[in-house]
Amino acid sequence: MDHAAESQRTDLMTVTCHVLNEQTKHPEARGDFSILLYHIVLGCKFVCTAVNKAGLAKLIGLAGDTNVQGEEQKKLDVLSNQVFVKALISSGRTCILVSEEDEVATFVEPSKRGRYCVVFDPLDGSSNIDCGVSVGTIFGIYMVKDKDTPTLEDVLQPGKNLLAAGYCMYGSSCTLVLSTGNGVNGFTLDPSLGEFILTHPDIKVPKAGKIYSVNEGNAKNWDEPTAKYVEKCKFSKDGSFPKTLRYVGSMVADVHRTLLYGGIFLYPADKKSPNGKLRVLYEIFPMSFLVEQAGGQAFTGKQRALDLVPKNLHDRSPIFLGSYDDIEEIKGLYAAAEEKEP
Ligand code: FDP
């Protein structure tokens, strides 16, 4: 990239303009989807500001502390959830909300109802907040079948039915990555403008990668295909270089790196957690949607991740996602293990 030329660019494309441009490709569109995304972006900006201040919490009384007025302050994940729930309901375009923070789904009251269901994790990776590691918001959007009679079936849909998905990473910069089913684009928040600017158009995950990303502390409980794969990453027998290990432990950061640099992110099943750790609806589906839209693959160990049909809102599944070729390899190992089974 020619950085000198980039710094002189004046044709800045904001995420709002980008979404409106996309809308013009659908003459029947009424702008509801653009309004919904505008509210999601607003929630992301709010959470970004809150996360940036997290390090000052002890000093100025944020997150779980008592402020100068003696009021109890909310923890960042609780605060983020409330911000998103309010932003989504006030868009007037949502019908059902499923949040990682809430045990049950929120059915929006009829007077504020719209056609969209949003599944989201308002602050994923929040165990990393106190040490300043990147965290993020993950979201997916479905269309309700009948907005007058919404049911849980409207959100217990396979990931392949998602209309859009994205995440916002609160890291060294604040980055929004979005797909409306027509490729993947990345936007970086310009804090002086308060706008997300298109900085990573048409993201494509490299076909093969040199990085593997997994919590190796769980290795003693892995199944054979996962163990074999990771062994191969380190001690390849075909003369290829060993892969590099990178694991932040914050899904948004690990998936973001995988999208940009390629490689594989794994959160497999293990003996202690036979369904893995990550949640299907608001972690696995949106990330798998983005990875597929960027030319990669997402696999559960048994099937394409986006074909899963969740039974419950907070279901979990093992997940392997990333570069096309790397996922082919792990698929091969699982297929071989299945053939061996009596
Ligand atoms: P966290 O527990 O910090 O909220 O699902 C949540 C998540 O983080 C993911 O963001 C991350 O990929 C994963 O858990 C990390 O799990 P391990 O600590 O078991 O590696």
From TrEMBL:
Localization, UniProt: Cytoplasm
Q: Taking every annotated instance into account, which residue ranges of this chain make up the domain Fructose-1-6-bisphosphatase class 1 C-terminal?
A: 205-333
InterPro entries reported in the protein's UniProt record: FBPase_C_dom (IPR044015), FBPase_class-1 (IPR000146), FBPase_N (IPR033391), FBPtase (IPR028343), Fructose_bisphosphatase_AS (IPR020548)
NCBIfam families (UniProt xref): PRK09293.1-1, PRK09293.1-3
Mind telling me which Gene3D superfamilies this protein's record contains? 3.40.190.80, Fructose-1,6-Bisphosphatase, subunit A, domain 1
Q: Which organism is it from?
A: Escallonia herrerae
Gene Ontology terms, MF aspect: fructose 1,6-bisphosphate 1-phosphatase activity; metal ion binding
* Name of the protein in question: Fructose-1,6-bisphosphatase, cytosolic
A single GO BP term for this record reads: fructose 6-phosphate metabolic process
Top enzyme category: hydrolase
The family annotation for this protein states: Belongs to the FBPase class 1 family.
Q: Which domain of life is it from?
A: Eukaryota
Keyword field contains Iron: no
Q: Which residues form the Fructose-1-6-bisphosphatase class I N-terminal domain?
A: 13-201
